[in-house]
């Protein structure tokens, strides 16, 4: 009986078609592996076409992205026009006269309403004054 651990798993070299360096002895042309170079110009032309196509696809994607961003900005501007947004150049006063006019338009409430506010207040008038950082 044979020991299975000693059996050879490599094929026996009895066949005459031994392959050396990737070529069998049957190859008549020793330059067979270089035959692709015969069509090197066609290969280069196809490679250039593929590169141009990929560049075209990339440029097209960038154009689509730019168009999308442009549409987003346009929608944002239209939305701003639809709503009354705060626009500093339009809404802030430009001169001291305008500031003074706005200041004069402020209404100071009369003392009776202030007394009503104090009467209805929940604050403790006898509470100690709050001083930050001091513990009581």
Automatic annotation (TrEMBL):
GO terms for molecular function: mRNA regulatory element binding translation repressor activity. It is found in: Cytoplasm. Keywords: Cytoplasm, Translation regulation, Ubl conjugation. The keyword Ubl conjugation applies. GO terms for biological process: negative regulation of translational initiation. InterPro entries: PAIP2-like, PAM2_motif. It comes from the Eukaryota. Coiled coil: none annotated. GO terms for cellular component: cytoplasm. Belongs to the PAIP2 family. Acts as a repressor in the regulation of translation initiation of poly(A)-containing mRNAs. Its inhibitory activity on translation is mediated via its action on PABPC1. Displaces the interaction of PABPC1 with poly(A) RNA and competes with PAIP1 for binding to PABPC1. Its association with PABPC1 results in disruption of the cytoplasmic poly(A) RNP structure organization. This is Polyadenylate-binding protein-interacting protein 2. It comes from Nothoprocta pentlandii. The gene is Paip2.
